[in-house]
Amino acid sequence: MARGLILLSSPTSLSANTLLSSFSKNPSTSFKLSPFSHLLHLQKPSSVSSPCCFTVCSSSSPSSQQCSIDMAKYRQVFSRRMDMAGIKPHHRIALGVSGGPDSIALCVLTAGWKTAGANSVGTDSSGFIDGLLAIIVDHGLRAESKDEANIVRNRVSQMGIRCEIANCDWPSGKPKQGHLQKAARDMRYQVFHDVCAKHQIGVLFIAHHADDQAELFILRLSRNSGVLGLAGTPFTSQIFPMHTHSYCEVPANGGVLLVRPLLEFSKEDMYKICRGGTEEWVEDPTNQNQLFTRNRIRRELNHLSSSAFKSELQRVISACRKTRAYVDHVCHSLIHQAVVIKDLGYAVIDLQILCPSKIEDIYLLKFLSLVLQFVSQRQRQIRGSALKLLMDYLRTIQCKNCITAAGCYLCPDPGSKGSRVLVCCSVDIALPLKMEFSETCSFRQHEYHVANELEKIIEDEKSNSNHLVLDASDVHFLDANPESVLDEAKRLNIISEPTFNSILVLQKQETNRFRSKVGAISDLASKHEVENATSSGNSLQPGQCCYFMDRFMLTWKLNDKMDRDVLSDLVDYGMDLSGEARNFCCTSCVVGRDQVLEVRHMIESDWLYLAELSRYSPLENSANGNTKMMEKTASYLHYASVSAKKALVLLKSIPVAARRSLPVLINQQGKLICIPSVNFKHCPCLMVHVEYKPKIPLGGGHSSSRIPDGSGCSNCGKPLQPTMKLSTQFIDRSFLV
């Protein structure tokens, strides 16, 4: 957004540099609107092509012209998409709103859908539609952004939609040019998730449309993406928290269902919906800035705006989406059969079931990407050379050796003779291990209303897709490499020769630009990641909650008295439980009443320390000392020794590679205090709770997209529950738009 606002409302010509060509068919007159005043001042039409102008647009066409826009058609398509996704008007929904024609069109259709029909909802005491919240993100990257966000909030509120402006916090400093768009996007979705979590909303609508898919196709084609990347964004997916909160009450793994209801509509449809709803929108002239790749691609696509080109481009995207749906189907079946997830955060792949040498590359690469993303807990799927290296490892080396790639450590499962491979989180990485904190934490499993709501949405979506069957003979590009997807599309008559040539020209232009800038962008991105990774500490105070390596929730405290389970355990081992001995044990141990503990991953010396501690003998110590103080000290040493013996038994059942990522607590002098995953602790009054709670579920949590004409593939997404509870998996099916 930029300085100033211009309201467009009555017929006059307007520069094409201001609005997209589809909007220029409905010319308007300009007015200057100050963001600091509620008054409108009539001025001469002025140029709005400057990057320092934020444009507000509307239509005041005669009612006869408004009637020519078939809003019933748009509402019918929107409603059908909601039915296919299992979403009902009574569900609590958030909208990502910028104030542009896309998000305003989304507001128009969502508000109409919620308030119309037999299942419509009413308004609350403030006059806002029940269960609908518009989230306006103020990135805070310009001085004018606050005023602009307020203007958008006022306009959306007039539509009967409650609004909230969410401000971005940049703890490592605002992003620099070259990294700006990606950083802003990541921050925006983090803010969306945070607001949804705060308001107990499980569904978020975003206004992506068909033209966005076309831009993304050209962008990814220029980056040498394969068919799975060329399929674009799915109709539904999930976003997950990038950090923890004291109010994190979003159910299960904390995911929010992200829905893109407008993928069937074009940019021109966005303007028609806004005009049909008689709503104003804003045009951000920074979208005309040719320094940004998406803006350049958008401009070039507008020059190729023939109906044949647009139609054929959407056809090839649909074919790619169908291929991705089929690949997802195969991969989720493979995961269900060949992968076991252990509750300590590592995976076991059965190679005899998987048979990697007999699986085509496209399936094995996606399979590995999903498994490694889960184990490493990265927000984005693993791609590139690391996957090819691992594919060769599974096929040719037969897992007789170990390998580290993509944040994971792979090695043979002991005793399996290479028939099974362990995939563990690697602690031998350059960046510090990630930790996040919140002041309060509850480990009880709550049943929130939003959890039940999302589960019902998922169930309804699955029931709607059970009749859909995918014919493998109708799936293309399975053997196509990134360079041959277009050739294959032309051979199959999906695209014509003119469209083929036009796409190649766009691809070549953006590929050349990308290669000239990739070095500088990579340097900026790496610096940004290092700054983020090094921003967290590792000290943990009593009662504070720690999220260690995006997988373990951890908290500790000291009790004044031992609980009955501990006392019973000590009786079994003949420990002195007299009041004096018990009190001394709890006040003189290595933890200390006022200390903070530190968290790190397990190292080899921890095993050696437990082995030494387990050999401690109270009788031998008493014979050597014979002092009252040593007898009291022996109380807690005896308990620690017993605890160490039990922990060693459990550790022996855990593969060495998996032990390395276990969280341990140490005191400020570096002495091992607790390994909560195997129940070792020095003091019986030390209460530590650890819970394996990965942010990203196996499979990435994607949900299936719906197909308007009912063609597609069956939903293979049974819950993947090998040895732990995982969220239900889904498959992208929105390949016909």
Automatic annotation (TrEMBL):
Gene Ontology terms describing biological process: tRNA processing
Gene Ontology molecular function, alphabetical: ATP binding; hydrolase activity; tRNA(Ile)-lysidine synthase activity
Catalytic activity as recorded in UniProt: cytidine(34) in tRNA(Ile2) + L-lysine + ATP = lysidine(34) in tRNA(Ile2) + AMP + diphosphate + H(+)
Keywords recorded for this protein, A-Z: ATP-binding, Hydrolase, Ligase, Nucleotide-binding, tRNA processing
The organism's place on the tree of life at top rank: Eukaryota
Cross-referenced Pfam families: ATP_bind_3
CDD domains to which the protein is assigned, alphabetical: TilS_N
InterPro entries documented for this protein: Rossmann-like_a/b/a_fold, TilS/TtcA_N, tRNA_Ile_lys_synt, tRNA_Ile_lys_synt_N
UniProt xrefs under SUPFAM superfamilies: Adenine nucleotide alpha hydrolases-like
EC number(s) stated in the UniProt entry for this protein: 6.3.4.19
Enzyme class: ligase
Domain tRNA(Ile)-lysidine/2-thiocytidine synthase N-terminal: 93-300
NCBIfam families in UniProt: lysidine_TilS_N
Record-given protein name: tRNA(Ile)-lysidine synthetase
